[in-house]
Amino acid sequence: MGFNTVAMILTDRLHDIKASSDFGARVYNAAIRFTWGEAHRDFLRFREGCIISQAHADTWQPVVVGKNAGYSLWADEVPLEALEAVARALRDKGYRVTKPKAAPAQREEAP
After folding, report:
1. Position 61 in a domain
2. 37: burial class by Cβ within 10 Å (0-12, 13-18, 19+)?
3. Is the separation of the CB atoms in 17 and 43 below 8 Å?
4. Is 111 inside a domain boundary?
């Protein structure tokens, strides 16, 4: 099945995309440079947006987009505001979401 790439396109740049002769090449160049751990680096950006995530086509890619940026929820660093938006969306669907008492890296392992 291959891989899927998630890209965020800035709507206010659609006129640039329509007029561009190299939009596809710029998206291609950003997409082939994607590496986990390097997300949100400048080389993943193109004038009209950025690459957010890549994964095998069999894998769901949870992402959140806002403030002219996008984040994979699998990434190590996701802004708190983005996580709160996800929590609100889940609560709206009837899920209970609670914040952990300590950051995952700070929790003690059970014996």
Report:
1. yes
2. exposed
3. no
4. no
> What pTM value is reported for the model?
0.76
Is residue 110 included in any domain, yes or no?
Answer: no
User: Facing residues of 93 across strands?
Assistant: none
Answer whether residue 76 is part of any domain. Answer: yes
Amino acid identity for residue 106 in this structure: Q
User: Other C-beta atoms within 10 Å of 68: how many?
Assistant: 10
Element (H, E) at 49: strand 49-56
pLDDT digits (tens, 9 = 90+) for 46-89: 889 999 999 999 999 999 999 988 888 988 888 999 999 999 99
Q: Mapping DSSP to helix (H, G, I), strand (E, B) and coil, where does residue 83 land?
A: helix
CB distance 9 to 17 below 8 Å: yes
How many independent structural domains does the chain possess? Answer: 1
Q: Which candidate, 66, 40, 64, 62, places its Cα nearest to that of 51? A: 40
Query: Phi/psi at 87 (nearest 5 deg)?
Result: -60, -45
The 8-class DSSP code of residue 76 comes to S
Q: Are 14 and 20 in contact (CB under 8 A)?
A: no
